[in-house]
Amino acid sequence: MTEAASEPVFWTDDSAFCGPLAHGEDVAAHFHDFGQLRYAASGALVTVTKAGTWAAPANRITWVPPFHVHRSRSYGETDVRLLGVPAELAERLPAEPSVFVASPLMREAYLALLCENEPADSPRARLLLEVVLAELVRARREPLRLPEPSDARLKAVTDLLHADPASPATLAELGHRTGSSERTLSRLFGSELSMSFHQWRTLLRVQRALLELGEGTSVTDTAIRLGWANPSSFIEAFTDLVGQTPGRYRAAARAAGTSVAGYP
Fold this sequence. Notes:
Elements: E1 9-10, E2 17-21, E3 26-31, E4 35-49, E5 52-56, E6 60-64, E7 70-85, H1 87-90, E8 98-101, H2 104-115, H3 123-138, H4 152-163, H5 171-178, H6 182-193, H7 197-214, H8 219-225, H9 231-242, H10 246-259
Parallel strand pairs: 1-3
Antiparallel strand pairs: 2-7, 3-7, 4-5, 4-6, 4-7, 6-8
Protein backbone atom coordinates (compact mmCIF):
# COMPACT_ATOMS: atom_id res chain seq x y z
CA MET A 1 0.00 0.00 0.00
CA THR A 2 1.54 3.28 -1.10
CA GLU A 3 0.76 6.97 -1.19
CA ALA A 4 -2.12 8.00 -3.43
CA ALA A 5 -1.39 10.24 -6.39
CA SER A 6 -4.46 12.50 -5.95
CA GLU A 7 -4.27 15.73 -3.97
CA PRO A 8 -5.14 15.27 -0.28
CA VAL A 9 -8.35 16.84 1.01
CA PHE A 10 -8.62 19.04 4.10
CA TRP A 11 -11.25 17.62 6.44
CA THR A 12 -12.81 19.90 9.05
CA ASP A 13 -15.17 17.47 10.81
CA ASP A 14 -13.58 16.54 14.14
CA SER A 15 -16.52 14.52 15.48
CA ALA A 16 -15.92 10.99 16.71
CA PHE A 17 -16.75 8.17 14.30
CA CYS A 18 -17.77 4.55 14.84
CA GLY A 19 -18.50 2.42 11.80
CA PRO A 20 -17.65 -0.60 9.66
CA LEU A 21 -15.26 -0.80 6.74
CA ALA A 22 -15.33 -3.72 4.33
CA HIS A 23 -12.16 -5.70 3.67
CA GLY A 24 -9.87 -3.72 1.38
CA GLU A 25 -11.86 -0.50 1.66
CA ASP A 26 -9.77 2.63 1.14
CA VAL A 27 -10.05 6.06 2.76
CA ALA A 28 -8.51 8.65 0.43
CA ALA A 29 -5.60 10.89 1.39
CA HIS A 30 -6.63 13.77 3.64
CA PHE A 31 -5.52 15.89 6.61
CA HIS A 32 -7.03 18.00 9.37
CA ASP A 33 -6.01 20.69 11.83
CA PHE A 34 -6.67 18.45 14.83
CA GLY A 35 -4.97 15.22 15.85
CA GLN A 36 -6.69 11.88 15.39
CA LEU A 37 -6.61 8.56 17.20
CA ARG A 38 -7.51 5.59 15.00
CA TYR A 39 -8.54 2.25 16.48
CA ALA A 40 -9.91 -0.94 14.94
CA ALA A 41 -12.11 -2.75 17.47
CA SER A 42 -12.07 -5.67 15.02
CA GLY A 43 -10.15 -6.30 11.84
CA ALA A 44 -7.11 -4.09 11.22
CA LEU A 45 -6.37 -0.63 9.89
CA VAL A 46 -3.30 0.28 7.85
CA THR A 47 -2.39 3.97 7.85
CA VAL A 48 -0.06 5.44 5.22
CA THR A 49 1.75 8.78 5.50
CA LYS A 50 4.80 10.24 3.78
CA ALA A 51 6.82 9.11 6.78
CA GLY A 52 5.84 5.48 6.29
CA THR A 53 3.21 2.80 6.70
CA TRP A 54 1.83 1.47 9.99
CA ALA A 55 -0.35 -1.60 10.59
CA ALA A 56 -2.67 -1.63 13.62
CA PRO A 57 -4.75 -4.69 14.56
CA ALA A 58 -7.12 -4.63 17.52
CA ASN A 59 -4.38 -4.45 20.16
CA ARG A 60 -2.82 -1.31 18.67
CA ILE A 61 -3.94 2.31 18.30
CA THR A 62 -2.66 4.73 15.66
CA TRP A 63 -1.90 8.40 16.29
CA VAL A 64 -1.90 10.95 13.44
CA PRO A 65 -0.83 14.49 14.49
CA PRO A 66 -2.50 17.63 13.08
CA PHE A 67 -1.80 18.44 9.41
CA HIS A 68 -0.19 15.06 8.61
CA VAL A 69 -1.56 13.77 5.30
CA HIS A 70 -2.70 10.17 5.70
CA ARG A 71 -4.82 7.53 4.04
CA SER A 72 -5.98 4.11 5.13
CA ARG A 73 -7.02 0.63 4.11
CA SER A 74 -8.95 -1.92 6.13
CA TYR A 75 -8.00 -5.59 6.43
CA GLY A 76 -10.81 -7.96 7.28
CA GLU A 77 -14.25 -6.72 8.32
CA THR A 78 -12.99 -3.71 10.27
CA ASP A 79 -14.88 -1.87 13.00
CA VAL A 80 -13.22 1.56 13.01
CA ARG A 81 -13.38 4.04 15.92
CA LEU A 82 -11.91 7.49 15.14
CA LEU A 83 -11.41 10.18 17.77
CA GLY A 84 -10.35 13.77 17.14
CA VAL A 85 -7.86 15.29 19.58
CA PRO A 86 -7.81 19.12 19.82
CA ALA A 87 -4.55 20.72 18.74
CA GLU A 88 -3.79 22.00 22.25
CA LEU A 89 -4.00 18.44 23.62
CA ALA A 90 -2.20 16.93 20.63
CA GLU A 91 1.02 18.56 21.85
CA ARG A 92 1.19 15.91 24.59
CA LEU A 93 1.63 13.16 22.00
CA PRO A 94 4.45 12.57 19.47
CA ALA A 95 4.95 15.07 16.65
CA GLU A 96 5.07 12.23 14.11
CA PRO A 97 2.55 9.48 13.30
CA SER A 98 2.92 6.54 15.68
CA VAL A 99 1.31 3.26 16.71
CA PHE A 100 0.94 2.38 20.38
CA VAL A 101 0.27 -0.85 22.21
CA ALA A 102 -3.23 -0.45 23.64
CA SER A 103 -3.47 -1.17 27.37
CA PRO A 104 -6.77 -2.63 28.64
CA LEU A 105 -7.48 0.58 30.59
CA MET A 106 -6.84 2.80 27.58
CA ARG A 107 -8.96 0.58 25.34
CA GLU A 108 -11.92 0.55 27.73
CA ALA A 109 -11.79 4.33 28.25
CA TYR A 110 -11.48 4.90 24.50
CA LEU A 111 -14.43 2.67 23.65
CA ALA A 112 -16.58 4.15 26.43
CA LEU A 113 -15.81 7.62 25.10
CA LEU A 114 -16.85 6.74 21.55
CA CYS A 115 -19.58 4.16 22.03
CA GLU A 116 -21.73 5.43 24.89
CA ASN A 117 -23.01 8.64 23.24
CA GLU A 118 -21.39 10.80 25.90
CA PRO A 119 -21.58 14.54 25.02
CA ALA A 120 -18.08 15.65 24.01
CA ASP A 121 -18.07 18.56 26.44
CA SER A 122 -19.37 16.65 29.48
CA PRO A 123 -17.16 16.19 32.58
CA ARG A 124 -17.20 12.42 32.04
CA ALA A 125 -16.07 12.74 28.41
CA ARG A 126 -13.23 15.06 29.42
CA LEU A 127 -12.18 12.58 32.13
CA LEU A 128 -12.26 9.63 29.73
CA LEU A 129 -10.18 11.56 27.18
CA GLU A 130 -7.69 12.43 29.90
CA VAL A 131 -7.39 8.72 30.77
CA VAL A 132 -6.79 7.85 27.11
CA LEU A 133 -4.10 10.51 26.70
CA ALA A 134 -2.41 9.63 30.00
CA GLU A 135 -2.25 5.96 28.99
CA LEU A 136 -0.89 6.84 25.53
CA VAL A 137 1.87 9.02 26.99
CA ARG A 138 3.19 6.00 28.92
CA ALA A 139 2.37 3.34 26.30
CA ARG A 140 5.00 1.43 24.36
CA ARG A 141 5.36 2.69 20.79
CA GLU A 142 5.28 0.11 18.03
CA PRO A 143 8.63 0.15 16.17
CA LEU A 144 7.35 -1.32 12.92
CA ARG A 145 7.27 1.76 10.70
CA LEU A 146 7.73 0.76 7.09
CA PRO A 147 9.47 3.67 5.29
CA GLU A 148 8.12 4.55 1.86
CA PRO A 149 10.24 5.91 -1.02
CA SER A 150 9.77 9.06 -3.05
CA ASP A 151 12.13 8.09 -5.88
CA ALA A 152 10.01 6.79 -8.78
CA ARG A 153 12.45 3.97 -9.58
CA LEU A 154 12.36 2.65 -6.05
CA LYS A 155 8.63 3.20 -5.69
CA ALA A 156 8.01 1.02 -8.75
CA VAL A 157 9.75 -1.84 -6.93
CA THR A 158 8.06 -1.30 -3.57
CA ASP A 159 4.67 -1.12 -5.31
CA LEU A 160 5.27 -4.62 -6.67
CA LEU A 161 6.20 -5.86 -3.22
CA HIS A 162 3.16 -4.23 -1.59
CA ALA A 163 0.99 -6.02 -4.14
CA ASP A 164 2.68 -9.37 -3.48
CA PRO A 165 4.75 -9.49 -0.27
CA ALA A 166 5.32 -13.23 -0.71
CA SER A 167 7.07 -12.77 -4.06
CA PRO A 168 10.44 -14.56 -4.09
CA ALA A 169 11.77 -12.23 -6.82
CA THR A 170 15.33 -10.99 -6.36
CA LEU A 171 16.20 -7.32 -6.54
CA ALA A 172 17.76 -7.96 -9.97
CA GLU A 173 14.51 -9.54 -11.20
CA LEU A 174 12.42 -6.70 -9.83
CA GLY A 175 14.79 -4.21 -11.44
CA HIS A 176 14.41 -5.96 -14.77
CA ARG A 177 10.61 -5.69 -14.47
CA THR A 178 10.74 -1.98 -13.62
CA GLY A 179 13.62 -0.85 -15.84
CA SER A 180 16.30 -0.18 -13.23
CA SER A 181 19.58 -1.90 -12.46
CA GLU A 182 20.13 -3.93 -9.31
CA ARG A 183 23.04 -1.69 -8.37
CA THR A 184 20.95 1.48 -8.65
CA LEU A 185 18.10 0.01 -6.63
CA SER A 186 20.41 -1.30 -3.94
CA ARG A 187 21.95 2.15 -3.59
CA LEU A 188 18.50 3.77 -3.38
CA PHE A 189 17.32 1.40 -0.65
CA GLY A 190 20.32 2.42 1.42
CA SER A 191 20.33 6.16 0.70
CA GLU A 192 16.58 6.82 0.79
CA LEU A 193 15.21 4.18 3.17
CA SER A 194 18.32 3.50 5.29
CA MET A 195 17.97 -0.26 4.94
CA SER A 196 18.70 -3.03 2.49
CA PHE A 197 16.22 -4.57 0.07
CA HIS A 198 16.10 -7.71 2.21
CA GLN A 199 15.45 -5.71 5.40
CA TRP A 200 12.66 -3.70 3.78
CA ARG A 201 10.90 -6.78 2.37
CA THR A 202 11.21 -8.57 5.72
CA LEU A 203 9.68 -5.58 7.49
CA LEU A 204 6.83 -5.46 4.95
CA ARG A 205 6.16 -9.16 5.48
CA VAL A 206 6.19 -8.81 9.26
CA GLN A 207 3.73 -5.90 9.04
CA ARG A 208 1.42 -8.04 6.93
CA ALA A 209 1.91 -10.88 9.41
CA LEU A 210 0.50 -8.62 12.14
CA LEU A 211 -2.69 -8.37 10.10
CA GLU A 212 -2.87 -12.09 9.33
CA LEU A 213 -2.28 -13.08 12.95
CA GLY A 214 -4.76 -10.48 14.18
CA GLU A 215 -7.40 -12.14 12.00
CA GLY A 216 -6.65 -15.48 13.65
CA THR A 217 -4.52 -17.08 10.90
CA SER A 218 -2.20 -19.72 12.30
CA VAL A 219 1.52 -19.10 12.59
CA THR A 220 2.31 -21.80 10.02
CA ASP A 221 -0.24 -20.56 7.48
CA THR A 222 0.94 -16.97 7.94
CA ALA A 223 4.54 -17.99 7.28
CA ILE A 224 3.56 -19.83 4.10
CA ARG A 225 1.23 -17.10 2.80
CA LEU A 226 3.91 -14.42 3.23
CA GLY A 227 6.78 -16.20 1.56
CA TRP A 228 8.95 -17.59 4.37
CA ALA A 229 10.73 -20.83 3.58
CA ASN A 230 9.57 -22.37 6.86
CA PRO A 231 7.78 -21.38 10.09
CA SER A 232 11.04 -21.30 12.05
CA SER A 233 12.55 -18.53 9.92
CA PHE A 234 9.29 -16.59 10.17
CA ILE A 235 9.19 -16.93 13.96
CA GLU A 236 12.79 -15.74 14.23
CA ALA A 237 12.27 -12.68 12.00
CA PHE A 238 8.97 -11.77 13.66
CA THR A 239 10.35 -12.08 17.17
CA ASP A 240 13.43 -9.98 16.33
CA LEU A 241 11.25 -7.10 15.07
CA VAL A 242 8.16 -7.29 17.28
CA GLY A 243 9.78 -8.43 20.53
CA GLN A 244 7.51 -11.44 21.05
CA THR A 245 6.74 -14.64 19.19
CA PRO A 246 3.97 -14.64 16.57
CA GLY A 247 2.05 -17.13 18.70
CA ARG A 248 1.97 -14.79 21.68
CA TYR A 249 1.14 -11.82 19.46
CA ARG A 250 -1.75 -13.73 17.85
CA ALA A 251 -3.19 -14.65 21.25
CA ALA A 252 -2.98 -11.05 22.50
CA ALA A 253 -4.54 -9.64 19.32
CA ARG A 254 -7.42 -12.11 19.45
CA ALA A 255 -7.99 -11.38 23.14
CA ALA A 256 -8.13 -7.65 22.42
CA GLY A 257 -10.70 -8.18 19.68
CA THR A 258 -12.82 -10.39 21.93
CA SER A 259 -12.77 -7.91 24.80
CA VAL A 260 -14.53 -5.20 22.77
CA ALA A 261 -17.17 -7.46 21.23
CA GLY A 262 -19.84 -6.24 23.65
CA TYR A 263 -19.65 -2.62 22.52
CA PRO A 264 -22.08 -1.45 19.82
